Amino acid sequence: xxxxxxxxxxxxxxxxxxxxxxxxxxxxxxxxxxxxxxxxxxxxxxxxxxxxxxxxxxxxxxxxxxxxxxxxxxxxxxxxxxxxxxxxxxxxxxxxxxxxxxxxxxxxxxxxxxxxxxxxxxxxxxxxxxxxxxxxxxxxxxxxxxxxxxxxxxxxxxxxxxxxxxxxxxxxxxxxxxxxxxxxxxxxx
Amino acid sequence: xxxxxxxxxxxxxxxxxxxx
Lengths: 189, 20
Known about the structure:
The complex is a heterodimer.
Chain A: E1 10-20, E2 32-40, H1 41-48, E3 62-67, E4 83-88, H2 93-96, H3 98-110, E5 121-127, E6 134-139, H4 145-159, E7 168-171, H5 172-177, E8 187-188
Antiparallel strand pairs in A: 1-2, 1-3, 3-5, 4-6, 4-7, 5-6, 7-8
Chain B: H1 7-11, H2 16-19
């Protein structure tokens, strides 16, 4: 009898999970921690099943999942000309949608759900905030309009959002320099 | 080729490790 060795299912990319906890006594960067990296389907679930659900995190915390080598911040070379598809949730949606949306987001990422445009994806971030949670998919270049809009359409579909609901894409450069709480959308789908 | 995995395929593995 030949026993097949258990072969894990490799992902196209290696991904890193980062955790951010808001501690006002520390610098922003010191609050951001790399938790672990994974590059197989099995290792992804082993991690996912063993960490706190997003809806159970305290306010001010983030999870970020980025391709290995890209830091979850605007300053990273691969992010600085990029932007994000942003999903803003109402307070009630923390209990009904947040965990599902975040899981679907991760499946889009690790499964390379945007076809060849997946190479434009840098990562995804979920912010848990008292005033309303946010989930975003970050892409590398706002000028790659075809990639950005394709990713946006597929992402919206992946989350199961109704066609009439419009989601927006914002350039990090605009978010970083905004003088009020409203950042203009560069694309919408 | 690119390693693309469909959602349902990925979901199929979520509890596999816990069952074996």
